[in-house]
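Suppose you are handed only these lines of text.
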Amino acid sequence: MTTIEQMLAGAEADPYSHHWDQLIEQVCHVGIGEDDRTRLIDSLPAIASRYPAGDRDNVLLLAGQIAADVDEESWPRFAEELKALHSLAGDWLAAPADPGLFLYRLQAMAALEGDELWGAELHRIADEEMEIECPTCGTVLFVVFGGAGRFATHEDYATRPVVEKSPLQPATDTELEGAGRRLYHASLQAGQTSIATALRYLFGRAECTQCNTVFRVSDQVFRH
Ligand SMILES: [Zn+2]
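From them, the structure of the protein bound to zinc ion can be written out as follows.
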């Protein structure tokens, strides 16, 4: 069996080594112990700093996945390393990427800032549709913001020709605050206008088609 230490040794010389895939698989799907987590967080800043900004996807996406699972209590132990990784992520975020990849970079950036929610769940806007619950009546709603339109509905809009819909209200400049504002501006700065637009809908408002409650979409997104 290949250990985390061996994978790391295999990965570090090549930003596109298949060992990175193994490490990401271990962290995301198998799970790693405390010692391995410490070893990874200690090693990743030096490795990332040797790669050009555009070649940091594997190392910093891995770092983001690890950071998303560092709880508040453990954060101070790794604060220096996570700060170093975060500063290496600045140029990386600006390096050319398609919107799908950029979204994962932005999620990793949020994780390295200690944002436990968007550091893990931001990728859910990739489908231009989210399933959330109405905060008042609990109905499961589709919030759709893409080619299919910009609306909320409790009906299966993908298979039914006519469904009851309510229009979405994207967040205005003044309504964007906190995480929404940071993520939005980071997207604009990187020239990722489609992601920036999706974020206006994520941090904007929807109306429940069952009980007419109007609520902020992002307030109904929870950590899986
Ligand atoms: Zn409702």
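What can we learn from it? The radius of gyration is 19 Å. The beta strands are 129-133, 140-146, 149-153, 166-167, 205-207, 214-216.
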